[in-house]
Amino acid sequence: SKVTFHHDGGLAEVVEAEPGISLMRAAVHNGVRGIIGECGGQAMCATCHVYVREPHLDALPGMSEDEDEMLDCTVAPRDDRRSRLGCQIALGGDLDEIEVDVPAGQV
Ligand code: FES
Question: Does the interface predicted TM-score (ipTM) exceed 0.90?
Fold first, then answer.
């Protein structure tokens, strides 16, 4: 799966990820700036917060209650439509390609 991480200022990092891993893991494995994943993917830290770009919103998995609650604790403001936890987005399947904006801060 191809994942594009857009940063403030227009820089983007593109990574190739194995299907089945989460967007957070893909970021951490590739040293993508601004995605921390402190809790290891348990939807308990919100340091993997991303804003998913419009064309990919429909392909996202549904949101659990835990994720929904944790998204109220992000450092950067929550966007009702585009905010998701990267650790709860499994790549592959319908999500062969995704583009996200990385918040300016996670902690
Ligand atoms: Fe902690 Fe996603 S890694 S909430």
Answer: yes
